[in-house]
Design brief:
Blueprint: E1 6-8, E2 11-13, E3 16-19, H1 30-39, E4 44-48, H2 51-54, H3 69-78, E5 82-86, H4 118-135, E6 146-150, H5 162-175, E7 181-186, E8 200-206, H6 211-221, E9 228-233, H7 249-261, E10 265-269, E11 283-284, E12 289-290, H8 309-318, E13 340-344, E14 347-350, E15 359-361, E16 376-383, E17 390-398, E18 400-405, E19 408-414, E20 421-424, E21 431-438, E22 454-463, E23 466-469, E24 473-478, H9 482-486, E25 491-492, E26 499-507, E27 513-516, E28 522-527, E29 530-536, E30 543-546, E31 554-562, E32 570-574, E33 606-609, E34 617-634, E35 646-647, E36 649-653, E37 666-670, E38 694-695, E39 707-725, E40 738-744
Parallel strand pairs: 3-4, 3-10, 4-5, 5-6, 6-7, 7-8, 8-9, 9-10
Antiparallel strand pairs: 1-2, 11-12, 13-32, 14-25, 14-26, 15-24, 16-21, 16-24, 17-20, 17-22, 18-19, 18-21, 22-23, 26-31, 27-30, 27-32, 28-29, 28-31, 33-40, 34-39, 34-40, 35-38, 36-39, 37-39
Helix pairs in contact: 4-5, 7-8
């Protein structure tokens, strides 16, 4: 590193990096995606390493075929591109468990991203050494193209333990990444929670960000350091049941130009997102919200490798900022796209009639206990006869379940809504209880990352005042690998309930296509043995990307596992994806029709006025207050004629000024939220993502102040103050000015 700049071979170098994820791109397409990045004006490729991809069972490492990351890096060098490597151990990436392997969860008291668990640190070191065997020889000092290696990932959003980060830095070096420049990345608001000697600091932020504001504090503390945005978010990721995320070309290009004018290095996250094939899509919490299979990300290069308006906007901008002697790469040929006429899947196999060998357990256990990483799990028990109705209470469903009694479905439970209870009818005799649980992605972010699947605690019967835990379970495991699905005994016709469906289709020519699964319920698809990923009728994604290299001329096989009921058992291949078709799910709105908050007689615990300034703002209450229910009421916006309210993040502080955990928080009321034009739902205020925010409606109705947000904190806490973060993009719409805060032990009147 030089004075305020990076040096490459002794000369100033501005990094223009394209983030690409090799598992999200079929190997046969790697080089084309790298060439597209160069054609966009990039000089570097940035990659994560995914620990859980390479070590799916302890000690069994796989760096071959689709997992051959060294080959990916060599392809970048072949095409004149440098490489930045981010080996973790934690990577986030909207990837199952943030890249950490599921088998860590077999240790009941496991802790991650901390020195408090020697097992975690030991396994981290083993993985880093295996990764370095593949990539350390490709460091630039050894003739390769790797110019930087990252230590951990956005650690300040998780903790501030400097000793852990120092140990991880040392583990990265000891593994073999001891030549190149090390760096770490965090946010403009939290990068100084710890220090890391010998490691460059970079910042992450999104499209439309005010660049000068983002680097202001960093430059004050590090006046001679190079400036880099190591994740400049070109778009955003999609959640099941939430609107498709986009970021405008103008806001995206505007902030990118600001960085180029200031010679600030960047990595475009994502340049091309690709697809979270198979079981690899993750989830956020709180609140629990699983990622869609498409990782299109509204990036410059679309999911299929297609060029977009953003692609050409970047290319046209960066041509003006090339290094001396540098030229834009040629745009490679597009991959062919085909349509496939609709066809029926004519065979089926009912899941409940194709059970594998059972495991027995007295108390219910999550799927990891049975050495299962992903997929579905069926719990079966016998319930005693009861002359009265009872309630079945499950603690906790991870993540989506159907409850059956004597083979007949009683209802569904959805973790996104916090569902836990099913009403049972009176039973004249002992009856068979089945609970089929579908895992929809482990949490990849924050403190909820210890996310076991299936049923994680217990199942209880409540009959009047009597509560009885259900015990003595048979457990059936349904993993995601293709050979397991193929074992099902198929027969002609359609099945009732959860089932596999099989069919074939014939092609004269191959090409990329998008499988239309809009008539199906919830599950997974395999074509010619390749797992395309998850589908869910709630959208916004209604297609699955099928790479042409996974198809063949002649007959092709398709297997669909649907744990819900399909409308029709047909599919077709489309030339364009459907990524923005959301099935309206009012259960996820935080206000029922006609519902109004009644604050009559309620006294605020604090009232004030925020300055119209960016960044976190802290407020101290006059005295500590106990309560479980919080109401934040926005009375006005910074602009007089602005009817909106918007908040990026809210935190509550205890008597010592520490942040109170938000893992149990749940929004019980919001007078208004924009959930059709954008994903600006009220629960964005505690999703721990500074670039997302709650925003009141603006696409249809435009309700005026006051605007209220009511949160159930999940437990009684003592609060001394709060921290508020206004939206972090360039817009000031809805920024709160005058406000009131209410808190009480019992629910507010609705």
């Amino acid at each position: 590193m030089g004075n305020k700049e990076f040096l490459l071979n002794g000369k100033p170098f501005v990094i223009r990096a394209a983030e690409l994820h090799y598992p999200r791109i079929p190997r046969e397409y790697w080089e084309q995606r790298i060439q597209l990045s160069k054609a966009m004006g990039m000089n570097t490729v940035c990659i994560y390493l995914f620990w859980n991809l390479h070590e799916q069972q302890p000690g069994q490492f796989d760096f071959k075929g689709q997992n051959d990351v060294a080959e990916f890096v060599k392809l970048a060098q072949k095409n004149g591109m440098y490489c930045i490597v981010r080996p973790g151990p934690y990577v986030c990436a909207e990837w199952d468990m943030g890249g950490l392997p599921w088998w860590l969860l077999k240790k009941e008291d496991v802790q991650v991203r901390t020195l408090q668990d020697p097992y975690f640190m030991d396994r981290t070191k083993v993985f880093l050494k295996e990764a370095a065997k593949q990539l350390a020889p490709l460091q630039i000092q050894k003739g390769g193209n790797i110019i930087m290696v990252q230590v951990e990932n956005e650690y300040a959003t998780f903790g501030g333990d400097q000793a852990y980060m120092e140990a991880t830095r040392d583990a990265v070096r000891d593994a073999g990444f001891d030549k190149v420049q090390l760096f770490r990345c965090d946010w403009p608001s939290n990068f100084n929670r710890y220090k890391l000697e010998g490691v460059a600091t970079t910042l992450n932020f999104g499209a439309g960000t005010n660049i000068d504001n983002s680097f202001k504090t960093f430059q004050e503390l590090n006046p001679s350091a190079p400036l880099m945005c190591s994740e400049y978010w070109s778009g955003w990721f999609d959640h099941w049941g939430r609107p498709h995320e986009t970021r405008s070309v103008s806001s995206f290009i505007g902030s990118l130009k600001d960085m180029m004018d200031r010679k600030i290095s960047f990595s475009l996250y994502m340049a091309h997102g690709g697809t979270s094939f198979g079981q690899w899509g993750g989830a956020n919490a709180p609140p629990y919200s699983a990622m869609a299979t498409s990782y299109d990300y509204n990036a410059p290069v679309g999911e299929q490798g297609n060029t977009t308006e953003k692609f050409f906007a970047v290319r046209n901008l960066l041509k003006n900022y090339l290094q001396p002697g540098e030229t834009l790469g040629e745009i490679p040929a597009a991959k062919p796209v085909i349509a496939i006429l609709a066809f029926a899947l004519t065979e089926s196999a009912a899941l409940l009639s194709n059970l594998p060998k059972a495991n027995k357990t007295e108390k219910i256990k999550p799927m990891e206990y049975f050495n299962q990483g992903w997929g579905r799990i069926l719990y079966r028990a016998t319930l005693p006869a009861s002359s009265t109705r009872q309630r079945l209470v499950i603690t906790e469903v991870h993540d989506w379940a159907t409850v059956f009694l004597n083979g007949k479905p009683l209802g569904k439970l959805d973790r996104r809504r916090g569902d836990s209870t099913i009403e049972l009818p009176a039973m004249a005799k002992a009856s068979q209880l089945d609970i089929l649980v579908e895992a929809t992605g482990r949490v990849n972010y924050g403190k909820a990352i210890i996310d076991r699947k299936g049923i994680t605690e217990k199942v209880e019967l409540i009959n009047g005042q009597k509560t009885t835990e259900v015990k003595n379970w048979l457990v059936y495991n349904f993993p995601v690998d293709y050979k397991f699905q193929k074992k099902a005994k198929f027969k002609k016709g359609r099945a009732d309930g959860p089932a596999w469906y099989k069919g074939t289709f014939t092609l004269k020519e191959t090409g990329d296509t998008f499988l239309d699964v809009s008539k199906w319920g919830k599950g997974m698809v395999w074509i010619n043995g390749n797992n395309l990923g998850r589908f869910w009728k709630i959208g916004p994604q209604q297609t699955l990307f099928v790479p042409g290299v996974w198809l063949k001329k002649g007959e092709n096989e398709i297997i669909v596992l649907d744990v819900d009921q399909p409308q029709a058992t047909t599919v077709a291949g489309l030339k364009e994806p459907i990524l923005d078709q959301l099935s309206v799910d009012e259960s996820l709105l935080h206000r029922t029709k006609g519902q109004t908050l009644n604050l009559t007689g309620e006294k605020p615990i604090h009232a004030g006025s925020f300055p119209g300034a960016p960044g976190w703002q802290e407020v101290a209450f006059g005295k500590p207050v106990n309560g479980r229910y919080l109401c934040f009421e926005a009375l006005s916006a910074q602009k007089e004629d602005d009817p909106y309210a918007s908040i990026a993040e809210l935190e509550l502080l205890d008597e010592k000024g520490n942040q109170i955990s938000r893992l149990k928080w749940k929004v019980v009321y919001a007078d208004s939220e924009e959930v059709t034009a954008a994903n600006n739902a009220a629960d964005r205020v505690f999703d721990q993502q500074e670039s997302t925010f709650w925003h009141t409606q603006y696409a249809a109705a435009k309700p005026r102040h006051p605007h209220q947000l009511v949160v159930d904190l999940g437990e009684t806490v003592t609060v001394k103050g709060l921290r508020y973060l206004p939206r972090t993009d360039k817009s000031t719409a809805g920024m709160v000015k005058e406000y009131k805060v209410y808190m009480k032990g019992s629910p507010f009147k609705l």
